[in-house]
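Field reference: sequence -> structure
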Amino acid sequence: MADNLYVAWQDEVSRTWHTIARLTRDSEGFELIFTQGATRLGDLPERLFGMQLKYRYRFEKLIHLFKNKIPSRNRPDFEKMARWLNLSGSEDEFALLSKFGLIPGSDALLVYPAPTIVDSKYEIEFFVHGIRHMQPDVLKLCENDLEPGERLLPVLDVQNPVDPHAVLLRCESNPILVGYVPTFYAADLKHILSNEALCASARITVLRNNKDAPIQLRLLCRFESAVLPGFQPLDSIVHKPALELQAAQS
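Structure field:
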């Protein structure tokens, strides 16, 4: 499992997600730094975290902002929610945060894991975004047809006015567009899928169709692909530490 988790904040007007921080687990506890994605959002880090962009923060245990994203194991719906996320429920606190963090909170924040790369194989799990904004037939498809193991095909939405890296998803058996890959993974997928050899073996499959879940937690998918040696996941400006920008400017 990745030892880096990222924090994204959603603008309530544009509904756009912005990566703003990175949480790292190491042998001494946890470290939180803000990313360059936060530098465009004014005093947001201070309002949400009570922290400043220019500092590195360390703590032995998860702070409440993160702990609050993990429901109590005593909740009557804990097992159901864990099932939606493809969890057993017995995972450690950090592993639980990497999955339960995918559920957006009332604070407009979600937490998502860095992709894993093992033996030049890239892998991520994600919920399909934007289902509610697609054609009505998508909801019917989710209710009746999509089952675990089914394949979804990526469509590079290169003229998307909001995100030129946007990746749409459609069913393999018909032309219905289901939704989008989360914007924070889209640049990685576009880079990988633009390579003809890598694209030929890349796969997006449905892990779970949670028919009893809210629509934003309906389709849990996995993307798997070989990558070229030296490939760096999440290698975008918004994921780079704000501390690097501060150092360059000083």
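Note: The helical segments are 44-49, 64-67, 78-84, 93-100, 137-144, 183-193, 196-201, 242-249.
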